[in-house]
Write a structure and sequence with these properties.
about 220 residues; nine-stranded mixed β-sheet; alpha/beta; about 25% helix
Length: about 220
């Protein structure tokens, strides 16, 4: 299976560097491979992003792509067009990874060959511990990008993967699925909901997302 990891980023080279270092410690996506192909889709103007992308990280083969038109979804669509990978894995520039993150996603893709959309756990890393007032908040997942649907791997009809941990087969894009360039960070429109829109498009194709609990990423929560 030919796999590309896509990271759309804008003017956050320090955060990106931490993410790439964590990714470099991950197991490769498929048996018999030794490197992870990464597309850094730079949607900003900070030259530090290119410098960070050209750093030599163990086990990463980084392809730097500058996208002039603003918008995270624009950058993601350009990355999709820039690779012929069979399986595209999307994540963000402010996460850390379980070492098995990528290997678990690609294993699940082999075991669920009819499904086009996959996602796993997203857990927050609190800078000073989770604030007590959020302990029982029903908005924890929405506000701080948290997703945990238990320990069983399975297709779940109402499961909608989040941006830091979402994978899509090439077939979906061949069938016309695209990120909506009018929404999402930097678009000038609604600043969220871009990955949600992808799940709706795939639902319209009769698809159900597969939840992969052993594929885990950790989202760094900025000051709370």
């Amino acid at each position: 299976m030919n796999v590309s990891v896509v990271i759309a980023t804008a003017d956050r080279p320090t955060a990106l560097e931490g993410t790439l270092r964590s990714l470099s410690a991950c197991e490769p996506p498929t048996p018999g491979t030794s490197t992870i192909h990464v597309i850094v889709a730079d949607n900003g103007i900070d030259p530090g992003t290119r410098r960070v992308s050209e750093t030599d990280y163990t086990a990463l083969r980084i392809e730097y792509l500058h996208v002039d038109r603003r918008g995270k979804t624009v950058a993601q669509n350009r990355a999709v067009e820039a690779t012929d990978a069979d399986f595209l894995v999307f994540t963000d520039d402010d996460v850390e990874f379980d070492p098995r993150w990528l290997a678990e996603l690609t294993r699940a893709a082999r075991e669920w060959p009819e499904n086009l959309l996959f996602g796993g756990r997203v857990l927050p890393i609190w800078p000073k511990g989770r604030p007590k007032h959020l302990a029982d908040s029903s908005y924890l997942g929405l506000l701080f990008t948290r997703l945990d649907r238990g320990d069983e791997e399975r297709p779940i009809p109402d499961f909608r993967p989040l941006g830091p941990n979402m994978a899509v087969r090439r077939e979906a894009f061949d069938r016309g699925v695209r990120f909506d360039e009018t929404i999402g960070p930097g678009s000038g429109g609604l600043p969220m909901g871009d990955e949600l829109d992808i799940t709706f498009q795939l639902e319209a194709l009769g698809q159900t997302a597969v939840y992969v609990p052993r594929s885990r990423v950790y989202h760094r929560v900025r000051g709370t």
